[in-house]
Amino acid sequence: MKQKKVPMRKCTGCGEMKEKRELIRVVKAPDVIDSDGNVAEYGEISLDLTGKKPGRGAYLCKNYSCFKKARKARRFERTFSRKIPDELYEQMEKELQSLENQI
Prior knowledge:
3-stranded antiparallel β-sheet, two-stranded antiparallel sheet, 3 helices, 24% strand
């Protein structure tokens, strides 16, 4: 019997390749564009624990140290091509820490 190929993704923080199901997806929802072709509203950036939200994604290990590395190196900002406010980082940090406490 032929084995299924396991999807691999690279952690934004540490740079290690891991199985997709072992990582948390950070997603930027699609931007809203007005009739003139300008960006009317930027897409929301959030943690996607289900892995099903639409939009551009980046992956992160389930530990806090990888999040700190990615934030310090501004890797999310580079991936999503926009400045990310500190409030959003703090919100993602709280969600990640609560998830870490559940494991």
